[in-house]
Design a protein that fits this description.
Order of helices and strands: HHHEHEEHE
Number of strands: 4
Structural class: alpha+beta
Distance between the termini: 12 Å
Radius of gyration: 21 Å
Largest sheet: 4 strands, antiparallel
Strand order of the largest sheet: 2-3-1-4
Number of helices: 5
């Protein structure tokens, strides 16, 4: 979700460091897609236009700041226990208007520091009380003490 925003930010930051003192610098961006809106916005130096399009797309898809996101990360040392807990949590997932629950799925880093990891991504409309919904959801599911459930509200990274 934040790939365009981060690309714009990083490339603009690098471009801003070109040149020394009063001597202007030149920035060259190599791309396979010169029509990409991020590349065009950087070349035009039009931050406001980029932000406007980014916010419009987020509104269309119900993404922050026009919606809410949360990630659930289920982890443990025994893969079968993690899978069982994730399955149970998934079966109890809330359903309703303005609520989308994706998962469980292996996390992008599905084995980290000896712990197996599964993820859920929850997207809700802005008016949904996200924390209360997650609390009610998880209170209905019993998980073994060896399995950890972490909640990340409005995650910055999806790893």
């Amino acid at each position: 979700m934040r790939a365009a925003e981060r690309s714009y930010q990083l490339m603009t930051q690098v471009a801003g460091r070109a040149g020394r003192g009063d001597r202007p610098g030149t920035v060259l961006l190599q791309t396979a897609d010169p029509s990409n809106r991020v590349i065009k916005a950087i070349a035009a130096g039009d931050r406001d236009a980029f932000n406007e399009v980014e916010l419009s797309q987020r509104m269309t898809h119900g993404m922050p700041p026009h919606g809410r996101l949360a990630a659930l990360i289920i982890s443990g040392k025994k893969e079968n226990e993690v899978d069982e807990a994730a399955w149970r949590i998934g079966r109890a997932a809330p359903r309703g208007d303005g609520i989308v629950v994706l998962g469980p799925a292996p996390a992008p880093l599905s084995l980290l520091r000896g712990r197996y990891r599964r993820r859920f991504l929850i997207r809700t409309d802005k008016q949904v009380r996200l924390q209360a919904m997650i609390h009610d959801w998880l209170s209905k599911v019993k998980t073994p003490g060896s399995v950890r459930v972490q909640i990340d509200i409005d995650p910055y990274s999806f790893m």
